[in-house]
């Protein structure tokens, strides 16, 4: 992360812990912007799929867990390829949304694939 910051490659970042994607991302989004998260793009882990299949609703999953997205980088789209070079294949970043103008700070679209 320090290398990315030193090279001015990121605009913001969020560690996704308790509170899930929405609560953690909104902390780094300015008031006049919204992070539009496409849940269809989330690559979830087996443990979260198991929890969902055992009775935890998607809404509760998204409010409580990171669902496999442990860290989010907020970047300019033209810096994506440069950023990918700083990660190993195991931790390769992928795009789950975009920043646009708006008032709600975070908008969740789509649905996580729990299969």
In short, what is this structure?
This protein is of the alpha+beta class and 115 residues long.
Could you explain the architecture of this structure?
The chain contains 5 helices and 5 strands; from the N terminus they run H-E-H-E-H-H-E-H-E-E. It is 27% helix and 21% strand. It has a single domain (2-109), classed as Phosphoribosyl-aminoimidazole Synthetase, Chain A, domain 2 (Alpha-Beta Complex), CATH 3.90.650. Strands 4-2-5 form a 3-stranded mixed beta sheet. A two-stranded antiparallel ribbon has the order 1-3. It is α+β, with helices and mostly antiparallel strands. The chain is globular and about 45 Å long.
DSSP helix fraction: 25-40%
| Gap from first CA to last CA | 32 Å
Number of helices: 5
- Globally, the shape reads globular
CATH fold-level label: Phosphoribosyl-aminoimidazole Synthetase, Chain A, domain 2
- Secondary-structure-based class equals alpha+beta
| Unreliable sequence segments | none
Number of domains: 1
**Chain-averaged pLDDT:** 94
Largest sheet: 3 strands, mixed
Share of β-strand residues: 15-25%
Q: What is the radius of gyration?
A: 14 Å
Tell me the series of helices and strands, N- to C-terminal.
Answer: HEHEHHEHEE
The CATH homologous superfamily is named PurM-like C-terminal domain
The appropriate CATH architecture is Alpha-Beta Complex
Notable characteristics:
115 residues; alpha+beta; Phosphoribosyl-aminoimidazole Synthetase, Chain A, domain 2; three-stranded mixed sheet; 27% helix
């Amino acid at each position: 992360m320090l290398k990315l910051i030193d090279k001015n490659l990121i605009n913001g970042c969020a560690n996704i812990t308790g509170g899930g994607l929405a609560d953690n991302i909104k902390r780094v989004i300015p008031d006049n912007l919204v992070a539009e998260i496409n849940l269809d793009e989330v690559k979830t882990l087996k443990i979260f799929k198991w929890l969902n299949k055992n009775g935890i609703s998607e809404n509760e999953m998204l409010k409580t867990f990171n669902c496999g997205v442990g860290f989010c980088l907020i970047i300019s789209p033209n810096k994506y390829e440069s950023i990918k070079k700083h990660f190993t294949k195991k931790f390769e970043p992928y795009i789950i949304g975009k920043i646009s103008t708006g008032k709600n700070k975070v908008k969740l679209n789509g649905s996580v694939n729990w299969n």
